[in-house]
Write a structure and sequence with these properties.
The chain is mainly beta and 130 residues long. It has one helix and twelve strands, in the order αββββββββββββ.
Length: 130
Amino acid sequence: MKLTLSALTLALAALPELASAGFAASCSWSWQEPKYVVATCTKKDGTPWRTRQDMNLCVGVDQFTGRLVSRNVGNAFLECWDTRKDGNTDLKSTCWNWHEEEVRGNLNIDAYMQNLDGWLWCHGHRSAPY
């Protein structure tokens, strides 16, 4: 029982780190053409940290629907245009679908990107200082 309680205590101690998915609550951000989220995020010690994430590492395009999707090295912004921030959690962009029609769509990047001590992370890719 003691070992199980210790394991539970360790797991609970890790929760704040694991629960940090969803960067928008601790970062202010903007879109910078052609492919970057630029953010000022709060670090664990409360200090601000400015960083920039290459979103081609995080977002792709569903070729059938033309919608943005979370995808490791998806390179969405090589083929999408007119991208901008929409609210505090979404990117909105226009892309081509399978039928070569323009499709305007949103992706909630807050569901896929996290703030880990001031750095933005998606699919194992850490942002750069800015």
